Amino acid sequence: MGDQIQFIVEKLNQEPFRKNYNLISFDSLESLQLLQLLSDVLGEIDPKHAVDIREELPEQTAKRMLHLLGILKYKPPGTVSDLSAFRQGLLTGSKPVIHPVLHWLLQRTNELKKRAYLARFLVKLEVPAEFLQDDTVADFNKQYEELMEAFKNLHKEHEQLKVSGLSTAEIRRDISAMEEEKDQLAKRVERLKRRVETVQNHQRMLEIARQLRLEKEREESLAQQKQEQKSQLFHAEQRLQRAQVQLKEMQHVVADSKPESLMKKLEEEVNFNSYLVTEKIPREMESKKTSVYFLQKVVAEPAMTQADLTALESEINEVNAQVNQLIEKRMMKYEPADSKFSMYRQQASIISRKKEAKAEELQAAKEEMSSLERQMEQKSSQAHELEGSEVLTEDEFKQYVSKLRSKNTLYKKKRLEIAAVTAEYGVLQRTEELLRQRHEAVQQQLQAVEEKKGISGYSYTQEELERVSAVKSEMDEVKGQTLDNMSEMVKKLNSMVAEKKASLAPVIKELRQLRQNCQELTQECEEKKIQYDSCAAGLETNRSALEQEVKGLLEDCAQEESNYRYINCMKRTLEIQLQRAKEEMKACVSPDPQERRRAVREQYTRIILEQENLGKKLREKQKVVRESHGPNMKQMKMWQDFEQLMECKRECFLKQQNQAAIGQVIQEGGKDRLVL
Fold it and tell me: Which domains are assigned to the chain?
């Protein structure tokens, strides 16, 4: 509590209060001074509450403070009874009530200022429902709510800008850095100008560079437009292709189908959808709801330990065993008729399960077909993006399949031929191996004979000479053929060069003439472009000047129009006030007492007198209540004590009656025993 009072004193001695309190002087403040101090703090938060409490009644002061504290979301400590004590303490200026309020307000003054400012615009006025039935009142209320929402959005944007905005120092630093950079760029430009002025035809070169830059920018914009048009064309082709595919599918369906088949197909689809709607989906929804209910029930229960889980598992096992026993007993008690019915029931359940399974398979097949269609569209779009071939239609695919079949038959024939050739190759390979073995045996015999005769290596040398002579003859033939081919090729090339020269001669002449024309047209285009740029610059300056002039005239016109409307409004209000003043003067001067009573002055005088009389009565009543408050409280305490005393006597009397009844019953029981 001492720290709280010290904090309050420190805050009150600072700006904007400057009260120059110390702990003793602050603690010695009277209730009225404390209330005035609280009103001053509230007035600092909301200027509407900067009033002198001596000029208003205590009830009005308490009501005003409670209203503002409610807007600022101050929560008094305690229960509902403590809230009534809080109101009473605020009315009387009690220190235990005022000090916590001051401490709470001075802790968060800036935040509360912002909240009070927003409350002026965001505290909604509650309009009774019977008034909202009027169209005009409803429209005004709707406009009021829309303006409130707009104010919320603007305030949020303002706060975001305040948070995200740069400080003035940072902005100044940025401006100074940009100015330095601007000076450096200006110096560089001057240096480059001095360098360029030494070059011949620098103006011409600068103009050409400017034109080159403009043409590059134009080329970039044209390239961007071309890219956009390409993408638009691609999307249009995709849409056209999808539409064509759908058209072909519809034509195929219409061509191949008959009314009976279409009706049958529609009936099957309707039956399937009705089965889904009436049986399958409601059953699935019911199962989902039950599972959700059980899950919510499990979530709502407290956390379970391992022992609880084991107990639940044992209970589940016991219940399952009991269910199995009951099923066995029921099956044993079945009669033959019941057994037949059970057989039919089993068949019906099997059929229903099969039906559900087929419905689920059909649903899954439909979903898979839709997903495959989506994948096909994606793949076709990817193929178009990669500039691949188009997706085949149904007829093209059939033709492709027929071609594949013909190629497949041809492939099978070739495969058989390859198998036959492979078998023949194996036979020939085996024959070659046998002949090689025989050749080796003959060679060995020949070498043995040559060794006997003393001419070993004769056969090998003769074979080598024959092979070399054969290779030499082949090389001579290849060389001769190559020389003939080269001579023929040189002749062909010479003839082709001559033909190309003859055919390109007139084209070269035309190209020279066209180059000269192109140079002349380029010069003329540059001159026209210079004229156009100068004319466009002059027109642009004239247009900007005219726009500025028109803008200024429009602003003047708007200002004059607003002044005119403001003066008209002021004139109307002054006329109305003048008319009311004339009527009031006429009513005051009139000798008729009824007209005098109608005068506003008389009405307000009468109301003031009534309020003064009412204030006097209320002050007297308040005085009487304050004087009789102590005796009344003492009397109420005496009545409460008397009520407790009587309640105690009633309980004692009831206990005494119960004891007497019990004793009488015991005596009667003893008499009965004696008689027996």
Answer: 1-123 (1.10.418.70)
